[in-house]
Amino acid sequence: MKQMLTAKNPPRLMIVITIILGAVIFDSCQKNITSNASSGPQRAQIFLTDHMTPIFDSVFIDIQKLEVKVEDDSTSNGGWITLAINPGVYNILRFRNGLDTLFATGTLPNGNLRKLRLTLGTNNRVMKNGQSTVLKIHDDDRQVVANLDNSNFEIAGGQVFFWIDFDAARSIQVDNSGSGNNNGFRLKPHIKIFTKSKSGRIEGRVLPQAADALVMAIMGTDTTMAIPDDDDGEFKIVGLNAGSYKVFVDGQNGYQDTTINNVQVIMGEHTNLPTIHLHQ
């Protein structure tokens, strides 16, 4: 029987893979965003980014294919458009706190988007303390599909963009199929689509770095995590639904935890917290 990875309360494992379809630069004129439906060709550029996890030192995900389904498209394959990527294994923990890399490009025949399909290979693994462990994946789990609608994608300047949140707290599971203590991990991908102007963001700084802190934004049963940067303690938690959050800062190495209640997240805005100082 499989079980979810757990750690201290609240949950601590949250890997976020974000794939952005959008302009290389889109400036402060977001108010000029056009309708999400367009009959003309739409250019797509895809970026890959991630939030760090404290459970593993590296997480390698084998990404083989990215497709977008366009409604009423005359192409073959049922309207699925394959976007050009460099297929292979990506160490997603290289990208966090807003860092990203150009991942794929393509052109969509129109902006009537309905679904996204991500296809994974079998060469998935995690690293901890120099030890590599395979992430097993069933053939039925190698494709993950998410809906696209007006709430989670946008078109601006003839370009399509949105984010894909790859939730490792639900995606990486303990595999109990081994004998004795030879249990490993299994990958069963779960993703969420969001876009910047229709979601919110919490950012701030946690000091000192010696606290090795984890930051969690919690609303109801939803928990999203970030790890402050090693150099300056800054963190960013993106793709949040609007609402009131509890921000829990989990201190390590003898530093006390702290909680900030009633942190308001507003759609399309950044919520900036004052510097958080942890004490022993």
Structural class: mainly beta
The description of the largest β-sheet is:
10 strands, mixed
Mean pLDDT: 81
Q: In terms of per-residue confidence, which ranges show pLDDT below 50 for 5 or more consecutive residues?
A: 1-35
Query: Number of helical runs?
Result: 1
**How much helix is in the residues?**
under 10%
Count all strands and give the number: 26
Number of domains: 2
Secondary structure layout plus pairing:
Layout: E1 3-4, E2 16-21, E3 42-51, E4 58-70, E5 80-82, E6 84-85, E7 88-91, E8 101-108, E9 113-120, E10 125-128, E11 131-136, E12 143-147, E13 154-156, E14 159-161, E15 163-166, H1 168-171, E16 172-175, E17 184-187, E18 191-194, E19 200-207, E20 214-219, E21 222-226, E22 234-240, E23 243-250, E24 258-265, E25 270-272, E26 276-277
Parallel strand pairs: 3-14, 11-17, 19-25, 19-26
Antiparallel strand pairs: 1-16, 2-3, 3-8, 4-5, 4-7, 4-9, 4-10, 6-8, 9-12, 10-11, 13-14, 15-18, 16-17, 19-22, 20-21, 20-23, 23-24
Q: Can you describe what's shown?
A:
The protein is mainly beta and 280 residues long. It is globular. 1% of the residues lie in helices and 50% in strands. Strands 1, 4, 5, 7, 9, 10, 11, 12, 16 and 17 form a ten-stranded mixed beta sheet that branches. Strands 2, 3, 6, 8, 13 and 14 form a six-stranded mixed beta sheet that branches. It has two domains: 3-28 and 36-196; 199-277, Immunoglobulin-like. The termini are far apart. Strand 16 and strand 17 form a beta hairpin. It contains one helix and 26 strands. Residues 1-35 have low confidence and may be disordered. The protein has one helix at residues 168-171; strands at residues 3-4, 16-21, 42-51, 58-70, 80-82, 84-85, 88-91, 101-108, 113-120, 125-128, 131-136, 143-147, 154-156, 159-161, 163-166, 172-175, 184-187, 191-194, 200-207, 214-219, 222-226, 234-240, 243-250, 258-265, 270-272, 276-277. The longest helix has 4 residues, at 168-171.
